[in-house]
Amino acid sequence: MSENIAPTHLFTAKEQALGGFSVRRLLPHAQCRMVGPWIFLDHIGPVQFDAGQGIDVRPHPHINLATVTYLFDGELLHRDSLGNVTSIRPNEINLMVAGRGIVHSERTAPELRAQGHSLHGLQLWLALPDTHEEMPPAFYHFEADQLPKTEVQGVPVRVMMGNAYGVSSPVPTYSPTVYLEAQLQAGQSLTLPAEIAEQAVYVAKGQLRLHNTELHAHHLAVFHTAQNVTVTATENTQLAIIGGDPVGKRFIWWNFVSSRAERIEQAKADWQTGQFPAVPDEVEWIPLPESIKG
Questions:
Q1: SS3 96
Q2: Which of 164, 138, 162, 169 lies closest to 65, judged by CA?
């Protein structure tokens, strides 16, 4: 067997406080802006809210990307400018395709806010390929039992998006894209699918060993080839694997992602002048930031 390949990049999350709870941001990172089509990865929580508290992300816009929300614990209420109102619960996937433009809010539902509750999950953004950047916006919700499971080397694996280990997810993709979740017991090993052009392993909980490298909780290891890459859990571990084919350079500013800098400037102006569609039953919105680095 060939020698295990070292990661192209290895880094830990940058923790950011967001008014009562923390978010660990993995992508974009100074070392690595994208992994395949994935351009944004946040690890939310885990956080415990007291009664009366919760999440209130007011309506805000997106273009030329797709958001993916996946919860380990808790619940979020999604509303968007297409009129969708959907609760996101553990092991389900929400895929919101912004395309030429969409607006959405993310909140704690009133009945959940009235009691103590927790929240823990991942939120990711996909950069749409050039041919789909301006497609009509769309929204998809998949229940937990719609996401296929398999077992690889004795390890339970859920194929959330794309094709891997001979299993295909029903969640739409617009370029070669993979998103997997695996649960390893201490001592178990998992070989990454070798056919994926670029991929990354995120340790949501636990610890892995990769050849001579230790991957601790909240580490992201990026590979530009995954041939002969095997990770071994040194304790019970929950990990996410993301990857796919690169889609080319992307500009990112606030909630906007595009292959064209001028398209982001247009989106800024459109948000300031009220050209984006509104979210029904929402009266608030997040103003365009005056200044953002990046």
A1: strand
A2: 138
Q: In tens digits, what is the pLDDT along the chain, a chain of 294 residues?
A: 345 677 889 999 888 776 567 789 999 998 899 999 999 999 998 999 999 999 999 999 999 999 999 999 999 999 999 999 999 999 999 999 999 999 999 999 999 999 989 999 999 999 999 999 999 999 999 999 999 999 999 999 999 999 999 999 999 999 999 999 999 999 999 999 988 989 999 999 999 998 888 999 999 999 987 677 899 999 999 999 999 999 999 999 999 999 999 999 999 999 999 999 999 999 999 999 985 444
Question: Could you tell me the end-to-end alpha-carbon distance of the chain, in angstroms, rounded to an integer?
Answer: 42
Q: Which of 243, 215, 267, 236 is nearest to 10 (CA)?
A: 215
Helix H or strand E encompassing 122: strand 117-127
Q: Provide the 10 A C-beta neighbour count for residue 212.
A: 7
Helix (H), strand (E) counts: the chain: 2, 26
- Give the position of tokens 């993979």: 178
DSSP result, 38-69: EEEEEEEEEEEEPTT---EEEEEEEBSEEEEE
Q: Which two tokens stand for residue 189?
A: 């090993």
| Residue whose token pair is 């351009």 | 39
How far apart CA 84 and CA 93 sit, in angstroms, is 14
At the fourth CATH level, which superfamily is domain 9-244? Jelly Rolls (2.60.120.10)
CB under 8 Å to 108, separation ≥6 — which residues?
Answer: 49, 53, 54, 55, 56, 75, 76, 77, 117, 119
Q: Which of 103, 105, 67, 101 is nearest to 86 (CA)?
A: 105
SS3 call for 180: strand
Per-domain residue ranges of the chain: 9-244
Residues for the chain: how many in total? 294
> C-alpha distances in angstroms, 274 versus 83, 97, 100?
18, 20, 15
